[in-house]
Amino acid sequence: MFYPDYRFKKISDIRPDFLLGRGLRFLVLDVDNTLTTHGHPVPAKGVLEWLQEMSQAGIQSVILSNNNAKRVEPFAGKLGLPYIADGRKPLCSGYERCLNLLHCRKEEMAAIGDQLFTDILGARRFGIASILVDPIQAEDFWLFKCKRTLENGLLCYYKKQGRSGYDG
Ligand SMILES: [Mg+2]
């Protein structure tokens, strides 16, 4: 339930061909530690160029964040993307809203994020492809440290089962 369909070190490692070859043309993007570091107003290096490549390849994106509109709206504006704030991942409601916004089918959608317990679990529950990226920066908040420890434990467990490598 927590295991991502695909895994990459960073978002810009995901190539349009990789997605299109799997019929994935619509992306649900996490913000914090996926497109930039926590609370940071500027996209991480390479993110704008990556988004441009995606849209040139006909791949559409929407932002789905558990963070509030005050944080998400200006960031989404910078990227020129529609957004849903207070997304309540891993609940399905936010993903449902993305699907309606993008006018697409579940089989064409993939969610990209850095957290197993929100981004990946939510995508799996909703029934769309899930892509895990490494967090851009380690968090210092204690709750995050606990979550990351659990996540790393799970990823280690999956690795022992021989299912862990990166896809690119
Ligand atoms: Mg995140």
Automatic annotation (TrEMBL):
Pfam families membership: Hydrolase_like
InterPro entries noted in UniProt: HAD-like_sf (IPR036412), HAD-SF_hydro_IIIA (IPR006549), HAD_sf (IPR023214), PGPP1/Gep4 (IPR010021)
An MF annotation (GO) of this entry: phosphatidylglycerophosphatase activity
Entries under Gene3D superfamilies matching the protein: HAD superfamily/HAD-like
Cited NCBIfam families: HAD-SF-IIIA, YqeG_hyp_ppase
The name this protein goes by in its record: YqeG family HAD IIIA-type phosphatase
Organism in which the protein naturally occurs: Harryflintia acetispora
Lineage summary: Bacteria, Bacillati, Bacillota, Clostridia, Eubacteriales
